[in-house]
Design goal:
The complex is a heterotrimer of chains A (about 400), B (about 250) and C (about 120). With about 400 residues, chain A is mainly alpha-helical. Helix content of chain A is about 70%, strand content about 5%. In chain A, the strands form two sheets. In chain A, strands 1-4 form a two-stranded antiparallel sheet. Chain A has a two-stranded parallel sheet with strand order 2-5. In chain A, helix 1 packs antiparallel against helix 13, helix 2 packs across helix 11 and helix 7 packs antiparallel against helix 11. About 5% of the residues of chain B have low confidence. In chain B, strand 2 and strand 3 form a beta hairpin. With about 120 residues, chain C is mostly helical. Chain C has two domains: about 30 residues, no CATH class; about 90 residues, no CATH class. Classes of the chains: A mainly alpha (about 400), B alpha+beta (about 250), C mainly alpha (about 120). Chains A and B meet through helix 5 and strand 3 of A and strand 2, helix 3, helix 4 and strand 6 of B. Strand 3 of chain A pairs antiparallel with strand 2 of chain B.
């Protein structure tokens, strides 16, 4: 099978409008970061009670989508599913762009982003953050080299680097899950299941993102996309979503079994106000159950419109999942005693509150803008998209 | 001039040594001059708080800490910085349980979770057991705040300005980094007790500070008696702040 | 060609800025003039001019991490002989356009306080 990749011409007014819009949105990220740095973090919704807010949620989310799309890219070269070869470049490029945006999300959220060089000189191997810094950066590099190997059409290196990238992607995800999973003092963080469930959610959100990106890219560049390829990806997404559901079920049931966790689990699942609403409404129902029903129902599983709806729901659902992982654990009060009620001026013993401030919302949107802008630039500069994507075999 | 590999390495090595000698050595030797103090592993600083002696409305230790360490007061309670705070507690699930108070600060754990998660080792444990934040190094990632079981850490989310009446011996709180109780390390190195302990003793309160390794010190006597407990001992962090009367 | 021009323009921005503002010999810069105190510094003046930051940073690391408190070599040591920061640190730093953050937190007034 011979696939011809070509650049987009990028001279139409539509392209320039798209790039201008994306650039404007992308500039929000550095601008809001500068605003946060100059004023201090008191302009955000993050406090001493909830030190990690939306920027960390976004970082984790983008990392997830990145690893998901990389695995999809490696489908053809590593796992032998050659029908996905037309998407290998675009997926690998998105993986690199997304991890770049994720690193940006983390670093610009530091209290002192001006100390960017400090981690290069001081390394503390016991911290998941330091280990992740190595993983993220090597992942970025390997993803880039993998992309180069694809441009050179070097089969052997494509396979080797693809395999290496998949291994590192698993490491990246386990590492990201471990950031929270290793925090043993908070009931809703410490869990050995976080690393694997991170991988599952990464794969499902990565697939969902690829479906949306492919559909609209092929549509607006006037190229032919064989819908059967999308059907296969949608089924794959469905399987990943079921795995996410399973992990969520096991994690919460295990947690709920221990009496000391009654308060934490009932907070998350029953009386947590907006957090409970996001968990059930945003994540379980609209993020996992409805899309699963769509992609496994024979009537809707072959309809492009339905698949797109399922992908959008799943993509936002994983954003809610990341929110649920990062935020509620910090909302829960820390117990100084196992059996005593505590109160203080520092809000000990009480539920904290977190609401996303405008600054953080603009920052998060800006990060997505960075990815979209990079995407638009890359498809103009390099031949990323195939002339047409047709299923290699006659039928599935 | 032609150089073979060996000569090249020799010259390079000599140059590297020369650079090191001219810069590093004089500076290092300066550090070992007279009247030096150095954190000594022979001292393991610890604190004991007898909360039976805490009057309900006493704020001596908190006030002393804010004054000594230039801890500013931010109006929003969620952003305010607390190096030491007053925690009110009562037995859970018992009607009419008595309310009591205790001071809670950084416990300078033997196995500090904050130092374990710090990516740049800005938070570290000194040889004498005091857990410190190197504010010159902290990048403000706030991982330590998630990891601390005792909520001892505060992020400085605003700029703090120099004002008259501040303690010139202690720097101001630095914007964008995470800070916490330092066990008044600047006083301990001078042979003094932390400001909170001094203020508490002046009121006839129950705080004591001393060296756990010294069998004659007040803290090691109380700890040996078995009356002292630690908060969240189940976590295995082994705090160095003990409580009597909980 | 355009890209090179843009790059050069952005790259030379700090030089341009300093030339027209406070940089060495730039408009508005005043040549530093230290008030010489009697007595000796911890190193000779020439060495200090070039390397004082290394002495300070080593003192800082040792003081924070090891508890080594040799005040002569720290900021407090500077203050004993040069009580006025404006006449000391700020002069040269302003002249060369260097803005260390030390004084954001550390106490070193630009006007010496009258001791009561």
């Amino acid at each position: 099978m011979n696939i011809t990749f070509t650049k987009v011409e990028g001279n139409s007014s539509g392209y320039w409008t798209f790039m201008a819009l994306a650039g404007a949105v992308a500039s929000l990220a550095p601008l809001t970061a500068l605003y946060m740095f100059i004023n201090g973090h008191h302009v955000t919704g993050m406090t001493n009670q909830v030190p990690w807010g939306m920027p960390i949620v976004m970082a984790v989310y983008l990392i997830g989508a990145s690893a998901g799309s990389l695995v999809l890219s490696a489908m053809s070269s590593v796992f032998g599913r050659t029908e996905y070869k037309p998407f290998a470049r675009i997926a690998a490029m998105l993986a690199v762009l997304l991890i770049t945006a994720a690193l940006m999300a983390i670093i610009l959220d530091w209290g002192r982003p001006d100390r960017i060089l400090v981690p290069f000189f001081h390394f503390q191997p016991r911290s998941m953050f330091s280990l992740n810094a190595i993983l993220y950066n090597s992942y970025m590099l390997v993803g880039f080299l993998y992309l180069v190997a694809q441009f050179k059409n070097h089969e052997v290196w494509q396979k080797r680097l693809g395999l290496l990238a998949v291994f590192i992607a698993v490491g990246v995800h386990s590492g990201t899950g471990a950031i929270f999973g290793f925090v043993y003092v908070r009931e809703l963080y410490g869990s050995p299941l976080l690393p694997p469930s991170f991988i599952a959610a990464a794969l499902s959100s990565g697939t969902a993102m690829m479906i949306i990106v492919l559909h609209f890219t092929f549509q607006y560049t006037g190229r032919r996309l064989d819908e059967r390829l999308i059907h296969g990806m949608a089924r794959l997404m469905g399987v990943f979503m079921l795995i996410v559901l399973y992990f969520l079920f096991v994690e919460n049931v295990t947690r709920a079994y221990a009496p000391k966790n009654y308060e934490a689990v009932s907070f998350l699942l029953l009386h947590g106000g907006k957090y409970t609403a996001i968990f059930w409404g945003g994540l379980i129902i609209s993020g996992l159950v409805i899309p699963s029903l769509i992609v496994f129902n024979p009537k809707t599983s072959k309809a492009m419109g339905w698949i797109l709806i399922a992908s959008f729901l799943q993509l936002t659902g994983v954003l809610f999942e990341r929110f649920i992982i990062v935020i509620p654990a910090q909302i829960m009060p820390l117990e100084l005693f196992a059996d005593k009620e505590i109160t203080s001026v520092f809000m000990d013993g009480g539920y904290a509150d977190y609401s996303v401030s405008l600054v953080e919302a603009l920052y998060s949107v800006g990060l997505i803008g960075v990815v979209v802008f990079g995407f638009g630039l890359c498809i103009k500069l390099w031949p990323m998209i195939p002339e047409e994507a047709v299923h290699s075999s006659g039928d599935l | 001039m032609s150089l073979d590999r060996r000569d090249f390495l020799k010259i390079g090595g000599a140059m590297a040594c020369g650079t090191a000698l001219t810069t590093a050595v004089p500076i290092v030797s300066a550090m070992t001059e007279a009247n030096e103090t150095r954190a000594d592993a022979g001292n393991q600083w610890a604190m004991v708080v007898d909360i039976n002696k805490c009057p309900p409305d006493c704020t001596a230790c908190y006030d002393a800490c804010r004054k000594e360490n230039n801890v500013p007061h931010f109006a929003e309670p969620a952003l305010d910085i607390h190096w030491i705070r007053k925690v009110t507690f009562k037995q859970k699930g018992v009607p009419g349980a008595e309310e009591r108070n205790m001071p809670v600060m950084c416990f300078h754990c033997e196995h500090p979770p904050c130092a374990h998660v710090c990516p740049v080792a800005a938070t570290f444990k000194r040889k004498d057991g005091i857990v410190l934040v190197d504010k010159h190094r902290c990048i403000g990632c706030r991982y330590c705040m998630s990891a601390c079981p005792y909520k001892a850490r505060s992020f400085v989310s605003k700029h703090v300005e120099h004002e008259p009446g501040q303690n010139p011996d202690v720097p101001l709180r630095m914007h964008g980094v995470v800070e916490k109780c330092e066990l008044c390390v600047h006083r301990v190195d001078k042979g003094l007790e932390p400001a909170c302990v001094e203020a508490c003793k002046a009121q006839g309160g129950g705080m004591a500070f001393g060296n756990l390794n010294d069998p004659q010190s007040e803290v090691s006597k109380i700890v040996r008696s078995g009356k002292a407990t630690r908060l969240r001992a189940d976590l295995g962090t082994n705090p160095r702040v003990f409580y009597v009367g909980i | 060609m355009l890209a090179v021009a843009v790059f050069l323009a952005v790259f030379s921005l700090p030089f341009v800025y300093n030339t027209f503002n406070v940089g060495i010999g730039g408009a508005g810069s005043v040549a530093p003039k230290l008030v010489h105190k009697k007595g000796e510094c911890v190193r000779d003046a020439d060495w200090m001019r070039r390397n004082h930051m290394q002495l300070l940073v080593h003192t800082r690391e040792d003081a924070v991490r090891e508890g080594v408190r040799v005040t002569d070599h720290g900021i407090k040591g500077c203050r004993t002989c040069h009580p006025n920061r404006a006449e000391f640190c700020d002069q040269c730093h302003g002249y060369v356009g260097v803005k260390p953050e030390c004084w954001d937190c550390h106490y070193y007034p630009s006007k010496p306080e009258k001791t009561a």
